[in-house]
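Colleagues,

Please find the record for the two-part complex below.
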Amino acid sequence: MDFDDTPDEAAWRAEVRAFLADHKDELGARTGRRDLDDETSRRRQALLYDAGYVGVTWPVEAGGRGGTPMQQAIVDQEMARAAIPGLINLIGIGMCGPTVIGHGSQDQKDRYLKRLLRADDVWCQLFSEPASGSDLAALRTRAVQDEQGDWHITGQKVWTTLAHLADYGILLTRTDPDVAKHRGLTMFVVDLKAPGVSVRPLRQMTGGAEFNEVFFDDVVIPDSERLGEVGEGWRVALTTLMSERLTLGGGGGDIGMNVERVAEHVGGRIGALPPDRQALVRQDFGRAYVATLGMRYTGYRLLTALSKGSLPGPEASAGKLAGTRAALELADLAVRLLGDDAVYGAGPDSARPDSAGPDETATWQLLQAGLPGMAIAGGTNEVLRNIIGERVLGLPPEPRADKGMTFRELAAAGA
Amino acid sequence: MDFDLSAEQRDLAAAAADFLGAGADLAAVRAALDDIETPLPVPPGRKGLVESGFATITVPEASGGGGGTVLDLAVVAEQAGRVLAGPSLVGYARAAELLSGDQARLAALADGSLAVAVHDGGPVLDAVGADQFLARVGDDIVIAAGTVSPRAAIDASRGLADVALGDAEVVLSDAAERWRRAEQVGRVVLAAEGLGAAARAVELGVAYAKERHAFGRPIGSYQAVKHALVDAYVEVEQLRSLVWWAAWTAEEEPAALPLASAAAKAAAASALERAAETLIQVHGGIGFTWEHDAHLYWRRAKVDRLLLGDEAGALDEVARIALGDLPGAERAGAER
């Protein structure tokens, strides 16, 4: 057991830290604003990619660096330390890219992967639908092949983060309704600028609009854009979901809330409170801090396992569960410390991209308002509990009412 | 970074599990509750623990101990916690710290001729069966004989009693810092025992939830039951990370021990309570009976949360350290 950097890790950390310091102005700072400035964000990621700090663990032939999970974690830590805003193409890097690497043709890999890492193209993940969220395999978007071999897509996706900025997406569709629901699926790469695709941003409870509805009206996708075999879409999607789990729950990074920032906030406010209230604040902060440490060090255990060659298993889901809980506790405390001001500040103005940026009150309010979404995105907490219960603890699954039914029968039954 | 037990530590855990699995006895823990006015030590007992070498892992080899680390001891303590073994390894861990440099007494601790407990002023952990007591008087560490008055403790496996100290001999003067460190190491070992007990409680709950049927299917298939067990499991795994980290800091990063030990102590208190209460709830009526083991874990939870400072005190310390009011947060930050 050793928490220190190895000499190689230390040299890597020093290199990354120096680069981030040297390019501080170009890389920009976190503003607390929810919406992304498309061009600035793309330029930032390109700068980082060209320096070798994006896609660190990706294979060299996929445009990556062929590095270790630990090297990637060090980049993440140093980015957080330097308060560099997150990468615009996080979904592309964390979920879409690994899916293309795992199941795409050589031609697809050549065309897409390097551009994805540079944010020349932004990607999104087109999975959820109005009638299939947690029950992803019940999705309805149809893909029908014509005589030339092209696929025609009709249907609707929803909660698609960044679709309004995206150039491409990975799209899970139904190609055969006459088999069990998860057997009739096929995955594609779709061009978001293709005729028939329309994207409508959805305003979230934060006031911002980073996620979208995406409509497909007879959109044509050539067969060369298929990812994996026809009918194998569920297996391909599992690659995406496994990568997602790691992106959201691994590595020991904070989810949604930075504990050191909350500590500063608490430190700045607590002195003005009467002693009995100070004691209560310390109880709450202590509890949230312990939860954060627990999540952080559990992330380090996972990172160690990955470094030794383990695949991200269902255990990684626990990181997201614990992380969202810690973030909720921190956000709740941070907002309550605002006192009377806590009733103000989560207005839509502060969430607009053209606003001067939120003040302190609004910053905490926005973070707080974003957290319910964190407990839903990437697998609801309830689904994650099922995964851990069934795949880690070995508890039996709930009986399924759709067992032995084809998708067509399910749809007819209104399920 | 390498945050995992070594192969040797895994072997140590397996050896401890073998020894404690054979030596500890939940039936004896239950029986001790029935005989609460004159409690008997629960197995494996001081003699067995000392002879096995597990109790004095952290005593230097030159004094007849194992020459191991607090992390080594924590690995064993987890196994002890699983089977509610007595006495606690906390007393040995603290004594090894408090007597550091005192070759003769350490040798006596390691060969079993010194049966010592640590007196903090309140109920004394493993006073039953001890004949000498380490205590703090002012800034001095002292050792004294004592009159032990056992009382009906909630958890009979903890050997709790009131102790009136006799004439004291000073072991070390101006030793406030050493006392604090020993207490922090004690918290880590207590948390490690809590980790083992909580992990075992979750396992027992999971096993029952797979077996027991209601409305035609295993109760573990119901999300209400499944999610309760998962929440307990997730908390146990977070605790495991904190216990390992805190134990590691004792030798490798002492400046972080105050924070890490307080965090582990607080996390252990709530994780074991949740696990034990979930264990009872998952079992339903049978989990509420005297014959079932569930309440033995519940009793351990209700007592341990108050030992070496309560959870509220530990949380307050965590907050003060994190806010910079107290030292001890060095290198705990995200940018390590």
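The first helix of chain B runs from residue 7 to 23.

Comments are welcome before we finalize the supplementary table.
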